[in-house]
Amino acid sequence: MSQAVLFQPAIRKECPPGACACERELLLDKLGSEAARILLLTREEEKRLIERISRIGSYEDLLHVSRLMHKNLGIVLQISPAAVEVRTVRGLQIRLADQPGLCRKTRETIPAAIRKCLEHNPAIVYAILDAHDLLGAAAPARPEEPATS
Question: How far is CA 79 from CA 14, 20, 21, 145, in A?
């Protein structure tokens, strides 16, 4: 008679005390839940993610990677132009939405990798600005036609 072997995926190791406020402990009781997906981002997996981000070559690819991060880990990537003018990539606000289990270091490394990618791919920056209608590519809103009786 064979016994079923349960597979326990590797989870991220605990941060040194005082170095992070990721609230990892809150998720340990909920392993397997959607909220605990972020714990699957081990240091090795984070390195693979950073490598993948460095290979982004288009705005569509950036959106795809962002969707995969949300689907697989629950990470919400937010990229938006700053309130003032955008002269360089530094004018974009790149951040990860707050969530329990997301390490302080990860909150810094993923946006930094995206910023570095954008510095090498200005076409992606223009697409981001265009998506926020800062380059005026969106068609002007047409006034509604009056209803005829």
Answer: 28, 24, 23, 35
Dist. CA 142–CA 4, nearest whole Å = 63
Q: Give pLDDT tens digits for 85-128.
A: 666 677 788 999 988 888 888 999 999 999 999 999 999 988 98
Distant-in-sequence, close-in-space partners of 32: CB < 8 Å, separation ≥ 6: none
H-helix segments, 19-140: 24-28, 43-54, 59-73, 104-120, 122-131
What is the C-alpha separation between 26 and 63, in angstroms, rounded? 30
Q: Rounded to two decimals, what is the model's pTM?
A: 0.78
Per residue in 12-41, pLDDT (tens digit) is 888 887 778 788 888 888 887 888 889 889
Report the 10 Å Cβ neighbour count for 142.
6
How many C-alpha atoms does 58 have within 13 Å on its Cβ side?
Answer: 3
